[in-house]
Write a structure and sequence with these properties.
The protein is an alpha/beta fold.
């Protein structure tokens, strides 16, 4: 039976039940706030996690990733007990609390309900939250299997149009599957024990292993490993031959530097490298990565329109819909819409508009995205004049790799 704010009666709580650990309250509050901000279009999951205190970030991150993977079925499981949708503050709290109950075995559901009730009291919604959560938890939660029970409607409609039923079903299954921890073996580094090699492109070597072991290893500190998906190697491999001739490279959207590092291994000895990005925050990670990998490069924080100089090779790893990296950024599919796609395509065009003045005649442009949207990627190669397309490739998501697109273009001589 649907429940409304006016006819709720909270199940009485014992005095001991009302004492909950401060950490649990912090996690639930942080998660519900992040859900509300993301769903209102005020940021991404990555940006939300940056604002969460370190002591509760790991648990909150697990909760949020689980929510965005299972959002559709989770919301169905509690909304049916409501006569109308609650305000965003309460809706996001119900989302976070039910996700925690279903997917975090370290917490007791009764305790989660008590925390959620306490947090909703200032909104005079404690009885409502109590009744909805208890009603939802009485029912068995069956993990979704069909694409229509998993994927956002906008994405489902688009993928059914652009991909086969088998491909769409495969993507939906991958969406619910945690991405493996994969890293690149840099400059001939040996494969660590208890790690397995992962297929990649262009002679680059990748492996999967236990995250903590790799991150705590002296090899990681020495720059022998770089945390990276093998899909990134596809773009650089397209340009492997011409990169060896480059003497002055610009990565125009560089942060945090992964593709710059890959390209540096193929460049002409002594080539100059400039890594540019609009985000000073993300460029801090670029600097850290370059230092760990002993890469001598110029790092600048600037809009593309502010960059000066002439280069013979430009990497444009453009902001995109992120539809190919949905396992690592599950919120991306929920933020996807026709409007959001149009907006990011405008941004892509603004960045590409700066390329002709920066690239010497006969120079090369490597465009890459982590999108699998054909019209988005196709517009990139057709929307820039004075260039010839040499080759392009689209990589669809798989068990071992994200999805990606790349195109190598050459500026026509004047």
């Amino acid at each position: 039976m649907p429940i409304s704010n006016s006819d709720l009666r909270a199940v009485p709580m014992k005095k001991d039940d009302q004492q909950f650990p401060g950490m649990q309250e912090k996690v639930l509050l942080a998660a519900s706030t992040a859900i509300r901000e993301i769903e209102a279009g005020r940021g991404t999951l990555d940006e939300a996690l940056e604002r969460i205190p370190g002591d509760c970030r790991r648990m909150t991150e697990h909760l949020l990733i689980s929510f965005f993977r299972y959002r559709k079925s989770l919301q169905v499981s509690w909304r049916k007990f409501c006569r109308k949708d609650p305000v965003p503050e309460i809706s996001s709290l119900l989302d976070a609390a039910l996700t925690q109950c279903r997917f975090q075995n370290s917490v007791v559901p009764q305790s989660v309900v008590n925390v959620a009730v306490s947090l909703s009291r200032s909104r005079h919604a404690d009885k409502f939250v109590n009744a909805v959560l208890r009603s939802a938890l009485k029912e068995e939660y069956i993990l979704p299997e069909k694409p229509e029970d998993i994927l956002p409607e906008a994405v489902l409609k688009r993928w059914r149009k652009n991909f086969s039923p088998a491909e769409t079903a495969h993507f939906a299954k991958l969406f619910l599957t945690p991405a493996p921890f994969i890293f690149r073996l840099c400059r001939g580094a040996a494969l660590p024990e208890k790690c397995s090699e992962v297929p990649a492109h262009g002679g680059f070597r990748f492996a999967s292993g236990e995250a903590r072991t790799i991150l705590d290893s002296p090899e990681f500190s020495r720059g022998e490993y770089y945390i990276q998906d093998p899909a990134t190697s596809m773009a650089i491999s397209l340009a492997a031959e011409v990169l060896g001739k480059s003497r002055n490279l610009l990565d125009i959207c560089a942060a945090p530097g992964g593709k710059t590092l890959m390209a540096s291994e193929l460049l002409f000895p002594g080539a100059k490298i400039t890594a540019a990005d609009v985000s000073s925050y993300r460029q801090k990670f670029t600097a850290e990565n370059f230092a760990r990998h002993h890469l001598d490069a110029r790092i600048i924080t600037a809009e593309p329109s502010q960059i000066t100089g002439e280069y013979d090779f430009i990497i444009a790893d453009l902001p995109c819909s992120n539809s190919g990296v949905f396992r690592r950024r599950p919120d991306a599919l929920w933020r996807f819409s026709g409007r959001s796609l149009a907006e990011v395509m405008k941004l892509q065009k603004r960045i590409l508009a700066e390329i002709p003045r920066l690239l010497v005649p006969g120079g090369y442009l490597l465009i890459s995205t982590c999108s699998i949207e054909a019209d988005e990627n196709g517009a990139l190669t057709s929307g820039i004049t004075g260039f010839e397309l040499l080759k392009s490739q689209t990589l669809l998501p798989s068990e071992d790799s994200d999805g990606a697109f790349a195109a190598l273009m050459r500026k026509v001589d004047n």
